[in-house]
Amino acid sequence: MKTKHWVAFLSLGAIWSSSFLWIKIAVQEMGPITLVAYRVLFGLLFGVVVILIQRTSWPSSFKEWLPLLVLGVTNIAIPFFLISWGELSIDSGVASILDATVPLFTIVVAHFLLHDDKMTVPKVVGLLVGFAGVVVLMSRDIGASSSSLPGQAAVILACVFYAGSSIYARKFTENTPGIFRSAGPLVSATAIMWLGTFFLEAPVKVPHTSIVWIALLWLGIFGSGVAFILAYYLIHEIGPTRATMVTYLFPLGGVTLGVFFLHEELTWQILAGAILIIASLAVTNWKQREI
Predict the structure, then answer these.
(1) Most buried of 11, 155, 161, 274 (most Cβ within 10 A)?
(2) Which pLDDT score, from 0 to 100, does residue 254 have?
(3) What is the pLDDT of residue 252?
(4) How far apart are CA 119 and CA 112, in angstroms?
């Protein structure tokens, strides 16, 4: 990857690393559907502001809108809800580990559906090493976590949707301006989630604490608006498999913040997991003959 790709990749990892924590905070005060409805609304408002500042015209034909609306359902509404619902019964650390299965699903599907994102020895080895690093990194917390099978299954299903959506985005949004790759899907996601809120979680809850407002604004502006611009950029620049490896940074970012800002213990699991994850990124980006 080029320097600009690494900057986007690490920025996306930093933003999404904190999402599980903010979801865990917000879901204590409101239902998962309402949480996602606020999140995508704030993300959409951010996108609209950027579009107005740039004076960019919205897509004018249904053909241009269709893939964006589909992604709003498959890449935002459904997986966001599944992860938020799952975190009602599982810890955020467990959710971040399960979310690291996204590139494992992606590499299999991409191999058969994309001509330029095939399985290679470095990719396969890198993905497996990286996933091992995530497991080692979080191994100390897995046994102490309170988890439920339905909650874990919901997060894994969300990962399947993420994997499929990344490949769909690569195939059908290549000529779409970057801001619309982010804002366009948020249109259908916002409509669906607010309908779901009014029908399934009425009356609509308004956050009462400042920390929940901060969580929703962060998840909307950064975790949705900015993050999807970066995510779709990487999908088209370096391919879905490498782009989805950003999920390996989620638990690494979380525990690193804990060490530096919360004075948590620096354990061998953190060091070993970090080494494996960094090694996986290096191995995956080696050029190798396809298999």
Answers:
(1) 155
(2) 64
(3) 73
(4) 9
CA–centroid distance for 147 within its chain: 21
In this structure, what DSSP letter does residue 171 have? H
Q: What is the reported pLDDT for 178?
A: 78
DSSP 206: P
* Average pLDDT of the segment spanning 160-166: 93
Measure the CA–CA gap between 27 and 30, rounded to whole angstroms: 5
pTM of the model: 0.80
CA 71 – CA 170 distance, rounded (Å):
11
pLDDT digits (tens, 9 = 90+) for 105-160: 888 888 888 887 788 888 888 888 888 887 787 676 555 555 578 888 898 899 99
CA 164 to chain centre: 13
Residues 6+ apart with CB under 8 A from 96: 17, 20, 134, 138, 247, 250, 251, 254
Return phi, psi of residue 251, to 5°. -70, -30
Q: Which residue's structure tokens are 């359902």?
A: 73
Contact present, 170 and 235 (Cβ < 8 Å): yes
Strands (E), the chain: none
Type of residue found at 182: S
- Collapsing DSSP states into helix, strand and coil, what is residue 290? strand
Pair 33, 201: CB distance under 8 Å: yes
Element (H, E) at 213: helix 210-217
Mean pLDDT of the chain: 83
Percentages helix, strand, coil for the chain (3-state, rounded to 5) are 80, 0, 20
Min mean pLDDT across 83-87, 157-161, 165-169 is at: 83-87
| Nearest CA among 227, 225, 247 for reference residue 43 | 225
Amino acid of residue 177: P
